[in-house]
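Per-record layout

source: Sphingomonas arvum
name: Rod shape-determining protein MreD
length: 173
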Amino acid sequence: MVRSALGNNATIGRGPRRLARYWPAGSVAIASTLSVLPIVTEVGWGPDFGFLMLIAWRLLRGDAIPAWWAAPLGLFNDLITGSPVGQSIFVWTASMLMLDLADRRTMWRDYWIEWLLAAILLFISQVVRWDVDALMGASYAFRLIWSPWIIAVLAFPLAAFTASAVDRWRLGR
């Protein structure tokens, strides 16, 4: 009788999934491993999927990934992608701090502002990557960073959708 009053889709008594607090970091780590797909190019065309997912989680839920998690997740990304150790640690930690500052300074945010913030952070990440590559002797034209940046900006809605789907699943909604 109680069941019929609540309906078949009752959410009473359902809570977050087991280890729910670790799913955001796990999804960032899984996204980082997408870079090991067997695609060979002279200059990277694809975005940094782990960074894209980190930004999506941070913009979706500020409490899902604490700022200090950026350093270990960045280290994992550096080790998986073959980037110089410290590059992702620096960029990801600085991005989390910038997003914390943006949260404190803005009164409201809509999807377009989040997309703009993501585009700015992704561009900064590409410039830092280009600069570190040049310091290590792998210099290439600056114009070659535009295509991965455009692909990353266009892939942000997919990352945001994935983060929101994982968030709904992990919280049992």
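summary: Residues 60 and 164 are 7 Å apart (CA to CA). The domain at 16-170 is CATH 1.10.1760 (Arp2/3 complex 21 kDa subunit ARPC3).
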